[in-house]
TrEMBL record:
UniProt-listed InterPro entries: Ionotropic_Glu_rcpt, Iontro_rcpt_C
Record keyword Ion transport present: yes
Membrane topology according to the record: Multi-pass membrane protein
Protein name: Ionotropic glutamate receptor C-terminal domain-containing protein
Annotated transmembrane regions: 138-156, 162-181, 225-243, 405-427
Entry's Gene Ontology molecular function annotations: ligand-gated monoatomic ion channel activity
Domain of life, source organism: Eukaryota
Cellular component per GO, a single term: membrane
Gene source species: [Myrmecia] bisecta
Entry keyword annotation includes Transmembrane: yes
Record domain Ionotropic glutamate receptor C-terminal: where: 161-413
Lineage: Eukaryota, Viridiplantae, Chlorophyta, core chlorophytes, Trebouxiophyceae
Length: 565
């Protein structure tokens, strides 16, 4: 800041060095006299200000001592640096136009203005005099906020698609590696593990479980090393996901058609009356609105909210401060048409007085970060209730619609699980029937029901029929027909020198019927009659099997095979 003002004074020093030096000596003498209490001005200075927050806040405040804002606080520091006491000046709060008119009036009551008056050609032509700038600002665009919250799958926005793909691929890859290593470890010491993981899907399930919990699944050193690194990756990813999801789901995001000054031509734009000519060079036909006090300022914002105008252009500090306090409006685009604010003096003010205030301002700029601290406190307020764009949004409670995707995923998982169970139920039933027909690969003499060749005393003592009670009626058993080739090679009812399953079932059916049993019900209650029937079934089956074997011995059909057909 100090170098900037030195650079600006250099041309003036080259052209009028003696004028500048004489002015400096005069203002230094006046300042020293004022600091020593020898000043001749006995009446307190009347410092006029006008409310336009955050620069000046005075409307509604009972005492001038309570007047605050960036400009009044900076003025207090300036006069304190000059050695002036608070009793040597008074603040007067008034409308902006009245303040400017009073400064221009030779009989006005205002000795100066500390409201941050724009150093503009128009004000200079009116005759106002200014100190060095107190603040550099510009114009900004304010629009009514249109905010959108996260959608149904907002929780998925925490990570990019590539990250989700990497997580899925990593989970499958790690599961495969761990499965292979554990199976290799089983060959070395199968008794180390609590239970044996023999399938890849089981290892996949355990690996996915690592995402939400941890349990000692793995025993070998190799798998433990990999699992430790994978668990660390999961912990980090879960932490990042939690933090990002909180922002993605609870924050609201600005959305609008006006994003910069380039979008304003053709739109209905409102601004302060004094800024209408400035906006014409940007091809913006703005509507002039009054801005003399805090009530007018609030009316400007209400006009924007009502939709009468699409955008509002005012001083950047005002708009930045307002959007940090009122979350339904938002500043868009970059600051443009920058200008300076300064202390304003009446036309008849001695140059020495203006220079005295200017020197005090420059000293404050050089000696420390006072002006930066004031800007942070009054303009760039970090304690904003809004959270978008430095204070242009709102933090809303989490709504079900924003996380409904989780329930959709859960419902899809339930459906997938039911489908999984149904498919494996059907496959299991088909497998049972196939095993019944195929006989588990046994030879024909092993195909007879186990109860038909076991001792009847065992069945009677047990009081039950272990196999017959679970058997199906004969009518429900479907047998595969032999191929044409096999029917030509082997006689009906025979296969590779052995009776087919149909022969055995038919023998069982006949024996069971002759013993008094029903074809539609294989299971009967235990009792003396059951024992008698079981003995008859066993004897009949054995006689039939002996007859079949005797017949086979007389006919050579080739060497016996393992298959039934």
């Amino acid at each position: 800041m100090s170098k900037q003002w030195d650079f600006r004074l250099q041309p003036f020093m080259k052209t009028c060095p003696w004028t500048v030096l004489s002015t400096i000596f005069a203002c230094t003498a006046a300042t020293n006299a004022l600091r020593n209490g020898n000043g001749t001005d006995a009446a307190p200075l009347n410092v006029c200000i006008s409310d336009w927050r955050p620069m000046v806040a005075c409307d509604g405040l009972s005492s001038p001592d309570a007047f605050t804002g960036y400009q009044p606080q900076l003025f207090r520091q300036v006069v304190a640096n000059m050695g002036m006491k608070p009793s040597t000046y008074n603040f007067t709060c008034m409308n902006w136009d009245d303040m400017i008119a009073d400064l221009l009036d030779p009989d006005g009551s205002c000795d100066l203005s500390a409201a941050g008056v724009e150093v503009s050609v128009q004000n200079l032509e009116l005759g106002l005099k200014f100190s060095v700038p107190t603040y550099k600002t510009g114009l900004s665009i304010l629009v009514a906020a249109q905010y959108v919250t996260g959608g149904t799958f907002a929780f998925m926005n925490a990570f990019d698609k590539s990250v989700w793909i990497a997580i899925g691929v990593t989970g499958v890859s790690i599961a495969m590696i761990l499965w292979l290593l554990e199976r290799l470890n089983k060959l070395q010491d199968p008794e180390m593990r609590e239970f044996d993981c023999t399938t890849f899907d089981e290892m996949m399930w355990r690996n996915i479980g690592t995402l939400v919990t941890h349990e000692e699944y793995y025993v070998s050193g190799a798998t433990r090393i990999i699992e430790f690194a994978y668990a660390f990756l999961i912990v980090v990813m879960v932490s990042l996901y939690t933090a990002n999801t909180t922002v993605q789901v609870t924050a609201v995001h600005f959305k609008g058609s006006i994003q910069s000054i380039a979008d304003l031509p053709g739109k209905v734009v409102g601004t302060w009356t004094n800024y209408m000519d400035i906006l014409k060079k940007y091809n913006i036909k703005a509507i002039g609105l009054p801005w003399d006090n805090d009530a007018d300022q609030q009316a400007l914002f209400d006009t924007l909210r009502s939709g009468e105008i699409h955008a509002l252009i005012l001083d950047s500090p005002v708009l930045e401060y307002t959007q940090s306090q009122q979350c339904d409006i938002h500043v868009v685009g970059q600051e443009f048409n920058t200008f300076n604010l300064a202390l304003a003096f009446p036309p008849n003010t001695p140059v020495a007085t203006i220079v005295r205030f200017s020197f005090s301002l420059v000293e404050l700029q050089q000696d420390g970060g006072l002006m930066d601290d004031l800007q942070s406190k009054y303009i760039n307020n970090p304690y904003s209730p809004c959270n978008v764009g430095g204070g242009g949004g709102d933090t809303l409670p989490l709504q079900f619609s924003q996380v409904a995707g989780l329930w959709y995923i859960l419902a899809a998982s339930v459906g997938a699980a039911c489908l999984y169970m149904l498919v494996f139920f059907v496959l299991d039933k088909l497998d049972q029937r196939w095993r019944l027909v195929r006989g588990m690969g046994k030879r024909i003499h092993e195909l007879l029901p186990e109860n038909l060749v076991r001792a009847h005393s065992e069945l009677i003592e047990a009081g039950r029929t272990p196999s017959l009670s679970r058997a199906r009626p004969i009518q429900q058993i479907k047998l595969r027909k032999p191929s044409e080739k096999r029917r030509k090679i082997y006689p009906a009812g025979y296969n590779d020198g052995k009776p087919t399953t149909a022969v055995v079932h038919q023998a069982t059916k006949v024996a069971f019927k002759e013993s008094g049993g029903s074809e539609d019900a294989w299971s009967v209650e235990a009792g003396p009659d059951l024992a008698t029937r079981l003995l008859a079934i066993r004897d009949m089956s054995q006689r039939l099997l002996a007859a079949v074997n005797a017949e086979l011995q007389s006919v050579d059909h080739g060497s016996p095979g393992e298959d039934l057909y």
